[in-house]
């Protein structure tokens, strides 16, 4: 009896899932390199009243390569790229990427915080996000993220 209930429960779960399966013979892979200059980062703070509301930096780019077909049936991934031109130090990190940082201060103490790089996208656009766990940029508006480089990898399904 227990086995029958288990099989019936599994069948209900499988039937209840609305899965879409698309058979693909092949797909096209596209890699798009994106550079965000330091002055291109935007800040979510809109006014003086929301100074301490978990603000962050973002950069939006037009991505006509992300079509409705890609959005529905393809795949889009982004990587933060560091030291691209260095054979020794070049590296990529799949987003979201979290980096734990320690920095010395002028007084000999240490600051500890986390940097988070993230990525969201929609049809025709992509957005990169950057935030730090100490939110120091909320106290000092002169703090801005540096220029950053990203790779967006798009798998375009074939019709």
Written account of the structure:
The protein is of the alpha+beta class and 159 residues long. It is 16% helix and 43% strand. Strands 2-3-8-7-6 form a 5-stranded antiparallel sheet, with no helix packed on it. A 4-stranded antiparallel sheet has the order 1-9-4-5.
Q: Looking across the biggest beta sheet, what order are the strands in? A: 2-3-8-7-6
Q: What is the CA–CA distance across the termini? A: 46 Å
Number of strands: 9
Helix content class: 10-25%
Question: How large, in whole angstroms, is the Cα Rg?
Answer: 22 Å
The string of secondary-structure elements, in order, is: HEEEHEEEEEHE
SSE layout and pairing:
Blueprint: H1 2-16, E1 27-36, E2 42-43, E3 57-62, H2 68-73, E4 75-82, E5 91-94, E6 97-104, E7 110-122, E8 125-132, H3 136-139, E9 148-157
Antiparallel strand pairs: 1-9, 2-3, 3-8, 4-5, 4-9, 6-7, 7-8
Give short descriptive properties of this protein.
four-stranded antiparallel β-sheet; alpha+beta
Please sum up the structure shown.
The chain has 159 residues and is α+β, with helices and mostly antiparallel strands.
